[in-house]
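Q: My labmate handed me this sequence with no annotations at all. I'd like to see what the chain might look like in three dimensions before we decide whether it's worth expressing. Could you predict it?
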Amino acid sequence: MRKKIEILAPAKNLFQGMAAINAGADAVYIGASMFGARTNATNPVEDIAELVRYAHLFKAKVLVTVNTILYDNELEACRQLIWDLHRIGVDALIIQDMGILEMDLPPIVLHASTQTNNRDAAHVQFLADAGMKRVVLARELNLDQIREIHEATGAELEFFVTGALCVSFSGNCYMSVANGERSANRGSCAQNCRLPYQLIDGTGATLIESSHLLSIKDLDLSEELPNLIRAGISSFKIEGRLKDLVYVKNNTAYLRKKLDAFLEAHAGLYEKASSGRTFYQFEPGLDRSFNRGYTDYFVNHRREKIGSWESPKSKGQYIGKLLEVKANGYRIENYELLHNGDGLYFLNEQGVGDGVQVNIIVHDIVVPNTLKSLPAGTEIYRNLDAEFNRMLEHENSAVRKIGVTMRFAETETGFCLQVTDEDGHQGIATLDAPKEPAKNAEGLIENIKKNLAKTGNTPFMADAIEVDFSENWFLPNARVNEIRRAALEELTEIRIRDYQREERPLVKTDHPYPAKALDFTYNVSNKLARAFYKRHGVTEIEKAFELQWDPGKSRVMVTKYCVKYELGKCPRYQRATMGEKVAEPLTLKHGEVEYKLKFNCKPCEMEIWEKDAELVLEEED
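A: Here is what I predict for the chain of 621 residues:
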């Protein structure tokens, strides 16, 4: 049996979910009215029900994020929501809180969110044994680690491939709640990692006056799809439930084209996870929608600097270098790529991300809304492509169709149209009508085929049409159109009705958890989660950070990202070129807020602590 490979796209709302499916997504993930890790991307159950119906028409799936940590007084509301989501046909839930596994649940498929410490085979296998069909792996993993997890476990594996990166291990960032009581694990991240910071060394000297020192580039693993598939990934996830329509359609279309090329070349081993073909009125490119520049992160181990220190805003598509400032505008390489209304991005003379908007282009002069002084040679990017955006905002820029074959034949009392789709479903419509020989038979059959092929705004397209008449019977075009509409409407309902949603009753287990003691990073915030871990052999369970925060003294992040590596001062990878060591501890400062940095070189991780914490610094090898 061929393995199904899935593109999983974000849906901020019903409209964007449908657009993602039209652009080629095999599945979408969306937040409900509560308990999703994006409080600004919530949706009523009624909208999700409509998205489910549309997705299932194409055999695409709808996954709902119920991935915040829960408090005791929210458990019953969460349980009721899950039953509502099952009732409307949702395919799976993406969850973080293990308390959900203690509830009385419908037989709905469960996926373990990337927030559940999915960084090694032991944890992934535990989750699979506990009832999770799929595990969303940590973004920090490399290909070797992914392959090891796949070979050691039976779970489906999902991996992020494009979009913004959390600098922290997912689920283990507490900067936001420590600063303003907005919990990332409760869906309200304040994005402290995107702020500018001053970097101060252990002597009190300022190494960097102001830079976005925790802001990192966006993820692009599109060239790694073949390697990731061979390593065991079956679902490729696009980050972005807060992103706009252009971003969602562009990212989905780009990955669809990449994946389809691979699937076509390996048709005996793998197949698409949904039905239909998408036709585009645009050429997708990741750099044409929101991005901070791209990195492959750690999938090929630690290789390059990944910081986006100049600005946390979108960098966009590289256009060319500034040739000169002339009169009231700029002469720019490749200026012919630009259009009125475009947004331009560049580093200003202070080395800070800056930009202008194109008012008009006169001959070879790009006239901005504000003329800013820039030296020749400045690299110019376009972070708002006005024409591209207008194109993608048009509903017909990506159209998805299911291939059908049609057989139009006569019956004793009239005619019958049988429509068979690419998955074997059949829609049949009959037409009672007198059979009268055509007075002019020339072109009659071709005319009938032409009218049958007019599938219009339906989700179908005719790949082959057969007209099986014993004579050239006359039929008005209106009657042909009538029977075509009836057959396709029936086929639509049959596809939705016959969609096979997987049902997985949850069986409570007591197999041992890989750890006996859980600290606050396991995010245990309710009595059901505590009961779950105790039943699985855990003896010590610390409360979630949100329930026990000690102001000023807490560790608020652990990350694979490393400020010393970005500075070229890593004793492990850059010893030969690093020069003089920096005096530790290093401190990040934003206004009155300060953090201390601790570098754990053996696991190659960096910790971020609040200013009053006492650090025990490692001795470098």
